[in-house]
Amino acid sequence: MDSLHIRPPPPDIPVPHQFKMFDNVDALYKGGWWKGIITRVLPRGSRYKVHLDNNGKVMEFKHSDLRLHLDWIDRKWTKPSPG
User: Fold this and answer.
1) What is the model's pTM?
2) Fewest C-beta in 10 Å: which of 50, 52, 55, 67?
3) DSSP secondary structure of the chain
4) Structure confidence at residue 16 (pLDDT)
5) What's the average model confidence in pLDDT over 33-46?
6) Is the pLDDT at 5 greater than 80, yes or no?
7) CB-based burial label for 61 (10 Å; 0-12, 13-18, 19+)
């Protein structure tokens, strides 16, 4: 694979104090980052239900295992458009 098809890691961006319903996130799962969406903010602290795009599963994650999702478009990282 040539370097044109290898993405650099996304930039470090501040993680919100708390995620909100429907935030686009990446969840740390099985040693990698998986795209998903927050489907529920749990009342017992900084835990969330996340619907993972790759397999359709809804799983529970700690705040520390989530980051805001960025899209790789035209060779740069961008925030996803709402909706």
Assistant:
1) 0.83
2) 55
3) --GGG-PPPPPP-PPPSS--TT-EEEEEETTEEEEEEEEEE-SSSSEEEEEETTT--EEEEEGGGEEE--EEETTEEEPPPP-
4) 86
5) 92
6) no
7) buried
16-78, what's its fold?
Answer: SH3 type barrels. (2.30.30)
Of 46, 28, 48, the C-alpha closest to 37 is: 48
55 burial via Cβ count (<10 Å: 0-12, 13-18, 19+): exposed
Give the residue carrying structure tokens 């370097």: 3
How many Cα atoms sit within 13 Å of 36 on the Cβ side? 29
